[in-house]
Specification:
Layout lengths: L1 E5 L1 H4 L5 H11 L3 E5 L7 H14 L3 E7 L8 H20 L4 E5 L12 H22 L2 E5 L11 H11 L5 E6 H6 L14 E6 L19 H10 L5 E4 L10 H19 L6
Parallel strand pairs: 1-2, 1-8, 2-3, 3-4, 4-5, 5-6, 6-7, 7-8
Helix pairs in contact: 2-3, 4-5, 5-6
């Protein structure tokens, strides 16, 4: 497996894009994922990202997108988010990345007004449309399992069901977020249900009760057990560390370095870290 980092760690601490990319490489990461928005960056920023990553020899693997409006009950909102996601997929292709990491929304109004099945069907329809665009570009979509009560995809079972309903498992696949799995009380053994469906992996720690995205070792997540279970499915791709909202932004370099060191230690102990 390769070890990557989502650049949101740097961005949320106010560090500019090229600094984050270069520091990611300097710390020893194999790859980088981008949290950005093609509707918010101009051609100069896109060129800067691509050229800096190329200069550093740091492959961009994934671009992250939160698109909660894909299941909005307003057709105009859905159409906007479809267009926005198409722009994201175009950016994935432009940067030579492999996948769009996509976060879907939540059931609205406690599922009491709009039938949940209608919201589910809207999401399935949207993902079929986006899946076709992804196929045309030669890239894939990785759906993130979110650990919140009303999230559309918040269990392994729902993830498997959703991918099956979309019917494009070669293109619309799963992201396996280790701390999210722990927060929804998923035993590592249940990861086996995602065999052949995992496109990407996120790694962080948490306190077992609330979303945290902490460096490994600062929480209670059984990271070793989850990584072993993920490898047992046949996955041998990238594991990207996700760190968000550092309590001390001025010390973000230490925060990221700690996460790298502890994750590398875990992966080496399991024999999972491959290097160029």
């Amino acid at each position: 497996m390769k070890l990557g980092l989502i650049n949101s760690a740097w961005a949320q601490a106010g560090r500019e894009t090229s600094f984050g990319i270069r520091k990611t490489k300097e710390l020893g990461f194999d790859t980088i994922d981008l949290f950005t928005d093609p509707l918010a960056i101009d051609v100069r920023e896109r060129l800067l990202v691509r050229r800096t990553a190329e200069d550093c020899g740091l492959p961009i693997v994934s671009v992250c997108c939160v698109a909660v409006g894909l299941i909005d009950f307003n057709p105009t909102v859905q159409r906007f988010h479809l267009d926005r996601c198409r722009a994201f997929l175009d950016l994935v292709c432009e940067l030579g990345a492999s996948n769009l990491l996509l976060v879907l929304g939540e059931y609205i109004w406690q599922r009491e007004v709009i039938p949940p099945a209608e919201q589910w069907a809207a999401a399935v329809s949207s993902l079929r449309t986006l899946g076709e665009h992804a196929r045309s570009l030669g890239v894939r979509i990785a759906l993130e399992l979110e650990p919140f009560r009303e999230s559309l995809l918040n269990t392994v079972g729902e993830m498997v069901r959703f991918i099956g309903d979309v019917g494009m498992a070669d293109t619309v696949r799963a992201n396996c977020d280790i701390s999210h799995l722990h927060l929804v009380h998923t035993p590592p053994g249940q990861v086996a249900a995602l065999k052949g469906l995992i496109e990407h992996v996120h790694l962080s720690d948490c306190n077992g009760r609330t979303h945290g995205d902490l460096p490994p070792g600062r929480g209670v997540t059984p990271i070793c057990d989850y990584l072993a279970a993920i490898r047992d499915t046949g996955y041998d791709g990238v594991v990207s560390i996700e760190l968000e909202y550092s309590p001390e932004p001025a010390r973000i370099e230490e925060w990221v370095a700690e996460a790298y060191r502890e994750t590398d230690k875990i992966m080496q102990s399991l024999g999972f870290r491959s290097r160029p």
